[in-house]
Amino acid sequence: MDDAVDVSEGDVKSLICRAFSIIVSLIVASVAILAIGHFARVEAQQQSYTVLYNFQGGTSGAYPYGGLLLDSAGDLFGTTDDTAGGATGIVFELSASGSFNVLHVFLSKPNDGHSPKAGVISDRAGNLFGTTFAGGRSNAGTIFGLSPAGKEAVLHPFAGSPSDGSFPTAPLLAGSGGLYYGTTIEGGTFNLGTVFEFNITTRLLTILHSFGGTGDGNEPNGGLITDSSGNLYGTTAWGGANNCGTLFELTAAGVETVLHSFTGTDGCNPYGSLLRNTAGDLYTTTFNGGANNLGAIVKWSENGKEFVLYSFGGPDGSGPFAPLIRDSSGDFYGTTYNGGANGLGVAFEFSNAQQYTVLHSFTGGTTDGANPYAPLVRDSSGNLYGATVDGGNPNCTNGCGTIFKITP
Predict the structure, then answer these.
(1) Are 116 and 132 in contact (CB under 8 A)?
(2) Is the Cβ–Cβ distance between 154 and 113 less than 8 Å?
(3) Distance (Å, rounded) from C-alpha 99 to C-alpha 101?
(4) DSSP alpha helices (H): ranges in 140-192?
């Protein structure tokens, strides 16, 4: 007969408490492990969302691909690609009071550009500068200027490979001394894109780098950013070691370095420009790749390490073309072209604590926009403004596009 074990009531209670404590600890640990791989998602919160303007098509504008410029008075400036009704693009102003003005209609003649894919920038005198995707003498795009009085001039018609770029899709970056910087998706030595410098005084354009060498990226769709030393940073949508695109640096001395070649699992096809913090870390979005191959938010650190901060999943958005913007608290804001509750894109916030929130899922139709391509802009009160390529007025296929406002 086995020896009996004398267990008191107190011992039983003690064992039960210890077992319960172990179970709770295991649950907490499991949750923590899951949290490491999947940052918190928050369903769309109630936001104040307003469609400020519905594009009408034709010479009134349609299909705004470029980002918006917000001035100190609260007026918005931008461009439309606008092939509806025979027009070939416009530059517009939407005033803070809601008045819409067409500042220039591109004429699609040999001496004018057409089909701008990027927004405009402004100088202190109120002149606007931008690029058109096509038009000009070689139909390879242009750099243009537009005075406050509405006078437009082609400052440079792109001529294409091998000595010039062609087909710019990104906004210009203003430097010092009348110098502007930009990219083209084709042209250059290999006809795979360029980085250029343009002197607005002499109207001399210099190719700083031709993409397409061994291991190099190609097709830089996004714009450029710079640091205090004059180095330029950008992305290419394709090329690199895995043909998923690259992050690159171009020094002030003209030396280009591929900082990172995307692999797919860490993102693929970055179409937007970069965002850089004071520590030198770079942030961007990728249209494809990530855990679900639906795009990602990524960070490249100064020490050469790259991190996927968030992988899009579909209902929370997918396929971001636009770059990120950031507020003073370190929170990011952006858009996706696809995904969301209706498959027509979302506006989102990705907080400094790495919590993802859908601010708005676009519904399309005649009452809302659809498929935002351009980046958001933010005013001093925290309001966000953006544009959608589709949705709104039915004069165009899938709608002519909208301008919207979100108050988080």
Answers:
(1) yes
(2) yes
(3) 7
(4) none
Amino acid at 68: L
Cα(212)–Cα(361) distance, integer angstroms: 38
Distance CA 290, CA 301 (A): 18
C-alpha torsion angle, residues 307, 269, 128, 80 (rounded to 10): -130
Secondary structure of residue 338 in the 3-state scheme: strand
* Bridge partners for 376 per DSSP: none
Burial class for 135, CB neighbours closer than 10 Å (0-12, 13-18, 19+)? buried
> In this predicted model, what pLDDT tens digit does every residue of 309-322 receive, in sequence order?
999 999 999 999 99
CA–CA separation, 306 and 105 (whole Å): 43
DSSP state of 318: B
Provide the 3-class DSSP secondary structure of residue 33.
helix
Residue 15 DSSP SS3 = helix
Q: Is 214 helix (H, G, I), strand (E, B) or coil?
A: coil
8 A C-beta contact, residue 101 and residue 128 = no
- Tell me what percent of the chain is helix, strand and coil, each rounded to the nearest 5: 10, 40, 50
Residue 50 β-bridge partners:
405
Instruction: Report pLDDT for 47.
Output: 73
Residue 329: how many CB atoms within 10 A of its CB?
A: 9
Closest CA to 221 of 365, 375, 357, 350: 375
Phi/psi of residue 22, nearest 5 degrees: -65, -45
CA distance linking residue 34 with residue 29, whole number of Å? 9
pLDDT in tens, 281-332: 999 999 999 999 999 999 999 888 899 999 999 999 999 999 999 999 999 9
Alpha-carbon distance of 115 to 167, in angstroms, equals 10
Q: Which of 226, 272, 224 is nearest to 245 (CA)?
A: 272
Beta bridge partner(s), residue 79: 91
Cα–Cα distance measured from residue 67 to residue 376, given in angstroms and rounded to the nearest whole number: 7
Residue 136: partners with Cβ closer than 8 Å, 6 or more residues away: 110, 111, 112, 113, 142, 154, 157, 158
3-state secondary structure of 189: coil
